[in-house]
Amino acid sequence: MKKRKWIWIGGAILIIGIAIGGYLMEKQTLRKLAENDDLLIGSSIRYDALLEDDTYQRLATTEFSSWTIENEMKMDAMQPEQGAFNFVKVDEMVQMAEEHDIKLRGHVLVWGEALPEWVSQQVVDRASAEQVLKTHIQELVKHYKGSIDTFDVVNEAWNDDGTLRDTIWLRTIGPDYIPLAFQWAREANPDAKLYYNDYGNEMSNAKSEAMLEALSNWKKDGIPIDGIGMQTHVDAADYRFSKNRIQKWFTRIEDAGFDIAVTEMDVKLQNLNNGDAKNVQAERFGDVMEVCLDTPACGEFTVWGISDNHSWVTEQESPNGKPLLFDENGQPKKAYNTLKRKLLF
Ligand code: G3I
Predict the structure, then answer these.
(1) Which of 83, 167, 238, 283 shows a CA-CA span of 20 to 30 A to 232?
(2) How does pLDDT run across 102-125, given as a tens digit for each residue?
(3) What is the pLDDT of residues 127-157, one digit of tens each?
C-alpha cells in the first residue's frame, strides 16, 4: 500500500514538472531561453522585410539576440561605386538593433560573389586587388567600430574537393588574400572577433579538412583568425547528416583553438516530400543546437532567415523548400518548439 502511495506521489510530481516545463517553454522566447545558456541566438536580417513586414519585425526583435546582416553589407551593396560607401541601410539596422539590445554580426567582408561591377575593371593585378580589398575591409570595420564587433571576414574560399575557389581575389593575390584580409580587419579594430565562414564545413570532409589545416597553420603564424563559422545549410534528404559526426568535428575545431558559430542554419524540405519531412527538419535543427550547447567554444546559433517567405531557399532553390522556424504567416513550426525544448532542458 505504502509503495503504491509513493508511486502516485512520484507520478503527480512528474506531471506537475512536465506541466511547468511546458508552460515555461510556451511563454518564453527563443532569446530568453538562450540567455540562460549564455548562447546568442540569431537570424539573418533583411532591411526591406524589417521595414515592411510587421510580423517579421516583431519576430526579429523579440525572438533573436543577434542579427546577421543578410545582404546589405556585401560589397555590391556597400560600395556600389568605387570609394562611394553606402552605409545608410546598415546604419539604420544598427540603430534598431541597439534599441532592442541585439548584437550584430557583420557579413561579409571578402567573398567571390555579390561584387559590384567596377571590381572586374579596377582589380587587374595583385597591387590593385590588395588596395581595393584593404580599403573595403578597413572602411567597413572602422565605420562600425563600437557597434559591430564580430565579422565574417572571408566567406566560402574552398571548393568541395579541398582546392581553393576560383575568385577574383585568388586569381590576383593568390591564397595570401585570406590571411591578409584578417590582418587588415585586425588593424582596423583590434578588439573585433574575426571569423572564417563557409558551408559544407560542419563535418569532416575534403573541404573542411583543407580549411582547418590552412586556418590552423595561419593561426600558428599569428594571423588573427578567432573563429570558424559553420553555415549549416542542410537538406532534410541528405543521408550524410550525422549528429555524431558534427559533434566530433566541432570538438576538433574547438581543440584547434577556434571559437565556433553556427552562422546560417536552415533545413530545406523540397527533396524529402514525405509526411515525415517536418519531423526530420525539427530533429536536424535540434541536433545541431544540442551539439552547439555541448561544445563550450560554440557561442552562437544563427538561422538564415525568420519565416519561409523571406528565404533564399524559397526564392532561389524551391518554393517548397520551407527551411525555417516560422511559416509564411509567421507561425512557429515544429522546429521552433524543438529548439526551445533543447534550450530549456
Ligand atoms: O532586392 C532585390 C529586388 O529588389 C529585385 O527585384 C530582385 C531581382 O533579382 O533581387 C533582389 O535582391 C536579391 C536579394 O537576394 C534579396 O532577395 C538578389 O538579387 C540576390 O542575389 C540576393 O541573394 C542573396 C545571396 O546570398 C547572394 O548575395 C540571398 O538573399 C542571401 O540569402 C544569400 O546568402 C548567402 C550568404 O551570404 C553566404 N552563404 C550562403 C547564403 C545563401 O546563398
Answers:
(1) 167
(2) 999 999 999 999 999 999 999 999
(3) 999 999 999 999 999 999 999 999 999 999 9
The CB density around residue 254, as the number of other CB atoms within 10 Å, is 16
Which residue ranges of the chain lie beneath pLDDT 50? Answer: none
pLDDT at 27: 80
Output the pTM of the full model. Answer: 0.95
What whole-number distance in Å separates Cα of residue 103 and Cα of residue 22? 28
Nearest protein CA to atom 38 of ligand 1, as residue? 155
How is 285-343 classified by DSSP, letter by letter?
A: HHHHHHHHHH-TTEEEEEES-SBGGG-HIIIII-TT---SSB-TTS-B-HHHHHHHHHH
Q: What residues contact residue 166 under an 8 Å CB cut-off, 6+ apart?
A: 112
Q: From the CB of 232, is ligand 1 less than 6 Å away?
A: no
Euclidean distance between the first and final Cα of the chain, in Å?
34
Q: Which residue's C-alpha comes closest to atom 28 of ligand 1?
A: 114
Residue 195, sorted as left (phi over 0), alpha (psi -120 to 50) or beta, turns out to be beta
pLDDT of residue 26: 72
Distance CA 148, CA 17 (A): 41
